[in-house]
Amino acid sequence: MSAGLHGSLGTFAIFSAVVKRDLLLALRRKSEVLTSLFFFVIVVSLFPLGIGPEMALLRIIAPGVLWVAALLAAMLSLNRMFAADHADGTLEQMLLSPAPLGLLVTGKILAHWLVAGLPLVLIAPLLGLQYDLAPQALGVLVFSLLIGTPLLSLIGAIGAALTLGVRGGGVLLSLLTLPLYIPALIFGAGAVEADISGLGAGGHLSLLAALLALSVFFAPWATTAALRISLE
Amino acid sequence: MLSTSDLACARGDRRLFSGLAFTLAPGGRLHVGGENGAGKTSLLRMLCGLSPPDAGEICWQGTPIGQLGDEYRQTVLYLGHHNALKDDLSALENLRTTAALAGVRVGDDAGVDLLRRAGLAGREDLPVRILSQGQKRRAALAHLLWSKAPLWILDEPFVALDAAAVNWLAGIIGRHVAEGGLAVLTSHQEVVIPGGVPQTLVLSQ
């Protein structure tokens, strides 16, 4: 054996290796990353074109349209979360890792958010301009997406793990996950609406943050359980 | 020491095997044989702890593997049908990631050296996608060169390898066993592995 070539890695180093690997893979396959981003941009831009320059109407529908588009864009990349790792056998190696699977799954979810969620947050204010949103409303929109998109990745991971290896899993994944996204949609879009109507977005954002805290705790655990069942 | 008692596996209504019992001591090698579909891969996955047995028990050093958790996962090295390589990463990146997942740090130079020993000199930085089937297998088998796990579970390790690589791999397995390691493997090819006579187990319905 090659003694002296290597040392041992701590749990956090294993976690960051998973995140780094997934980011590197995303970098090598830019088209997959850009697909969901372009989808988001195009869907959001279609509404003003279809409705026409009715500023009052656009301002009212803006939060809902942006949030629904974000949900659908996040959905697009979900089925890739574990499917590729499952197909090439790397998921089995993760299950056999001495590090807790929940931690590795959290790493994958974090990478998914960085690749599929964060770009949506960053481009949202630009798209919001098409809807004549006030600067403060744009700020609330970005903030609500910043709290909300990790929630989408976390909940989506459970669905992706449950539908792993199922034929026609893509459609099933949408049917399974979209209903679970409803609370995020209500509080996320609600925050922006509340801000526009002058009620203050604090309540909605707090509830959204509470949902995030809850799912950070439970989603990796549920995803781990689902993965173990799928891989039996 | 790996031991099983009264192990059974069923797929749907069909019973693949039952009442399987064996003990593998350090320095022991177990060849699992049987026709296609006899349950060899299912047995190997059970031994890894990837799927629970339908009946019976698998013990490592006398303790059921379900109770050992991460301690057992550090003990096992599993190479399945899939190479567990990412097509878009290079052989070196794959090696370092797989090692990191197993909790082993492999530096860049050490990684290049290991790949050279696996017969991939000069191909360390190519994406695995463009390597040949045999080269991919070699990249996957580099796993054996850095692993500290005493129990190797190898599913058809000789598939897709050329004669030289088959000899190289047989030598590595032989050395591992000679150093007190354990190996469980399936193979449809007749390969002479140095160092003693292996235990054999033939699965049949």
How is this structure best described in words?
- The complex is a heterodimer of chains A (232) and B (205).
- Chain A has 232 residues and is an all-alpha fold.
- Chain A has one domain.
- In chain A, 82% of the residues lie in helices and 0% in strands.
- Chain A contains nine helices and no strands.
- Chain A has helices at residues 11-28, 30-51, 55-76, 80-88, 90-95, 101-128, 135-162, 169-196, 202-231.
- The two termini of chain A are 32 Å apart.
- The model of chain A is unreliable at 1-5 (pLDDT under 50).
- By secondary structure, chain B is α/β, with parallel strands linked by helices.
- Chain B has two domains: 1-75 and 149-205, P-loop containing nucleotide triphosphate hydrolases (Rossmann fold); 87-148.
- Helix content of chain B is 33%, strand content 26%.
- In chain B, the strands form two sheets. A five-stranded parallel β-sheet of chain B has the order 6-7-8-3-9, sandwiched between helices. In chain B, strands 2-1-4-5 form a four-stranded antiparallel β-sheet.
- In chain B, strand 4 and strand 5 (63-64) form a beta hairpin.
- The longest helix of chain B is centred in the C-terminal third of the chain and has 16 residues, at 163-178.
- Chain B starts with a strand and ends with a strand.
- The mean pLDDT of chain B is 90.
- The chains are: A mainly alpha (232), B alpha/beta (205).
- The interface between A and B is large, with 32 and 40 residues.
